[in-house]
Design a protein that fits this description.
2 copies of one chain form a homodimer. The first copy, chain A, has helices at residues 2-14, 16-27, 39-54, 126-140, 164-170, 172-175, 218-221, 228-237, 260-268, 273-280, 293-299, 335-349, 374-387, 401-410, 435-453; strands spanning 60-64, 71-76, 85-91, 111-113, 116-118, 148-154, 179-182, 194-199, 201-210, 216-217, 302-310, 316-317, 320-329, 355-364, 367-368, 392-395, 414-416, 432-434. The first copy, chain A, is of the alpha+beta class and 459 residues long. At the A-B interface, β10, α7, α8, α10 and α11 of A face β10, α7, α8, α10 and α11 of B.
Chain lengths: 459, 459
């Protein structure tokens, strides 16, 4: 098997340029899931990756319809029932590239500059999908896959994987596996291979404030009617106290405290104030000073208005204003409980001069996985084989709905990692992929296939 | 002259339908001045009204270029030097009709339903321009105009008449007149002909708050960096105290107090809480309770954020957020002084975790005119001749830059009135014109031409 592993690593090396050329093609499809208008691009992206998986080759590849965007499924089960089965997760949809004028290049015309490849989706998540494809292909063409492999590439990650739960329920048998490898989380630094054992959950909703029954001339009514923009601003301003803590009633009650060991590990990570300042470009950090920034991102909940809109014209008090609120949840908060807390807070704080309602409330809980699972250990050995050092373990501030859904519906854990870097600007303008890191990732994934087949203990 | 007056009133009656058909044509041109893309429509509207003025007939009609949108000028000076000269002011530009889906009909395809004509600009200001044109035409074709008449119809009222000052300076002689008749203000009720003796001024600017150097993933940075939307909300929320008073330092110091007589007149107007609630559709009124709502609108300054924007996506902390602030000024506040107050307030209140700046700061002061001027008295008699009751006198909460500019540059006062009603939804969706009131307005303007020629005292 060590010969096969070496052959596969060589294959991956030789095939690097071809795979990157394919990635550029994949990135050229603007498969934004937030916009219904992009259905055609969603379909093209699904077909593109299905066709690529077929050529791995896989034994079976399907584009499976859902109530929303299709899921691309593929499998190669030749290793037989005694071998472990890993399912690679990915998503072919991308975040909107707006605002377009903040990009140096067209987000869908990938540009390579030095070691970086710039495009929407380069890191999140098309580059990661292609790393998995490249590794599996390398093993498949070097004596055959040592383990059973499945791929589940969805098209709604950026909109909360809304159709995934029913897809999972409908295809339990097809999707059965020992665990999921999810490379959608990234790493803490170029030289810091990372395994994440936690993700934040998410609750989101739209808060609408309605004032006058129609837009009013601000000359005739300025100083007489409550401006819905002002009322909304007061409400948003009132969601945090002066120390940056969320004031919803009972908000922190079910938050699982960080253990001393977790705090010690986090303190050892290269995620100090300076690194966050550098990554964000803000003049100073902000937030609950009882916790270090790295702890606030990974282990504490956060509330953000990510979009706010009200008014269109210079001379009118608008009839309504709206804020899109997101709350990143940590164990053991639930979306239902923060929803109830928000409603309770609004009931006692919305002024009687306006009307309000919440719309599009949805969410999923945070997740935590076992750092001692065999899949985690195999991945740790694989990362060490390439980077020459063991990975660090961290809880991510991000949220991936699929992880909780897979746990809930199929009972399988996800091993979380990735080869995107903190400065890759995922979700922002000029998203990029660091190509040398990506290549190391492909190699680590090749190792991973063989490490799973032959755990260190049995060697 | 009484024969001529009767003949002119008859002429206006007979010509009513033809004039309204022309108004419908005029309203069909979407001459929105806020959008540079509408330059072609601005030009079409200017040409349309110039051609209509020529056919009054006027002795001279010109479309005069400015740095911005052209001004349409016309004159008929046959009454001779001993006769008074009145200049009719109007504006052929309109407010944007956004949000379009709030309209029951296309805003630029006028629809008549019962007594109402629905279209953007029906009341503000194309209907008023056509009332002036109809009255002048009626007199011109009934024995000749008894006074000298000028028309100045600009195309930038809805964007603060930015090019008007230099136009006025460049054409002092052409524009010389005894006073200006400005029908852009309206009336307080169908049976309440109104002369306004004051207008609020305006200061406006964009407040930009900048946080991270680019949009940040809200999972990675939520709880660590100050969200510019939150910072902006806090600032906006902090611009008023709990009683609805503006907290800028010294904001009310130069506000000229309402006299007891003014407060008594305002109290007698049919503008009680109930009427404002009905007009606005809000659940309750809001504002400084030391003043009645009618006093707050007419005689007190007001600050409104009329547009606020930040963020585009569900999963990102935006790099910036922006609010368009407008402050309605009263005598003797100046735009420069409130600008300085705002800067001073922001300097001490913007948190150090974000950066800020003000853009597009501009404004003009409020104006007050003499209630005993001959033009006011002639208009009062004309309104009484049609409505059977003397007009009420009021200070408008609205702002017309041209009024202050005409005072400053040419030294002429404006007599302010109009035939739009409080429920005409000017600047809002489903703007309309009440046709029977408009017809009464045309008749009052016919009277006005003869009342100016032969003041009551000399009859």
């Amino acid at each position: 098997m060590e010969d096969a592993r070496r052959e596969a690593l060589d294959y991956a090396d030789r095939n690097r340029e071809a795979t990157l050329a394919q990635l550029v093609e994949f990135l050229g499809i603007p498969s934004v899931s937030q916009r219904p208008a992009d259905r055609e691009n969603i379909r093209r992206a699904a077909e593109w990756i299905a066709s690529r998986l077929e050529s791995v080759p896989t034994a079976r590849t399907e584009i499976v319809s859902t109530d929303g965007n299709p899921v691309v499924y593929a499998e190669s089960l030749e290793a037989g029932e005694s071998a472990p089965t890993v399912m690679f997760y990915g998503h072919y949809d991308v975040q909107s590239a707006a605002p377009l004028d903040a990009w140096d290049n067209d987000p869908y015309e990938p540009v390579t500059s030095g070691d970086e490849l710039y495009a929407r989706g380069a890191s999140d998540n098309k580059g990661m999908i292609m790393a998995c494809v490249a590794a599996v292909e390398a093993a498949a063409r070097s004596g055959g896959l040592p383990i059973n492999v499945k791929f589940m590439i969805e098209g709604e990650e950026e909109i909360g994987s809304v159709s995934l739960p029913s897809f999972l329920s409908a295809h339990r048998e097809m999707l059965s596996c020992d665990f999921v490898l999810n490379p959608d989380v990234g790493m803490l630094g170029k030289e810091l291979p990372t395994i994440f054992y936690g993700l934040r959950g998410m609750f989101s909703c739209r808060l609408k404030i309605r004032g006058p029954s129609q837009d009013l001339h601000s000359g005739g009514f300025g100083g007489i009617v409550r401006n819905p923009i002002h009322a909304l601003c007061e409400l948003v301003a009132g969601l945090h106290d002066d120390e940056g803590r969320v004031v919803l009633p009972g908000f922190y009650e079910s938050v699982r405290p960080l253990t001393d060991e977790e705090r010690a590990v986090m303190a050892s990570l290269p995620l100090d104030e300076e690194s966050y300042l550098r990554q964000s470009g803000v003049p100073e950090l902000w937030g609950d000073s009882d916790f270090a920034p790295v702890e606030r991102a990974g282990g504490r909940p956060a509330l953000d208005v990510v979009c706010m809109e009200g008014g269109t014209r210079k001379a009118a008090i608008p009839s309504e204003a709206e804020a899109l609120l997101t709350i990143r949840l940590v164990p053991d908060q639930t979306p239902a409980e923060v929803h109830a807390q928000l409603v309770s807070h609004l009931k006692s704080h919305v002024p009687s001069s306006v009307r309000w309602n919440l719309e599009d409330c949805e969410g999923f809980p945070a997740s935590i996985t076992d750092r001692d699972a065999p899949g985690v250990k195999a991945l740790a050995r694989s990362l060490e084989a390439v980077w020459g050092r063991p990975p660090v373990y961290h809880r991510s501030g991000g949220s991936i709905a699929a992880v909780g859904q897979l746990q809930e519906t199929l009972g399988v854990d996800s091993v979380l990692t990735g080869f995107s870097l903190p400065d890759d600007r995922i979700h922002g303008p000029n998203e990029k992929l660091h190509l040398p890191t990506w290549s190391r990732g492909v190699k680590a994934l090749v190792h991973f296939l063989y490490e799973l087949a032959e755990p260190a203990a049995s060697r």
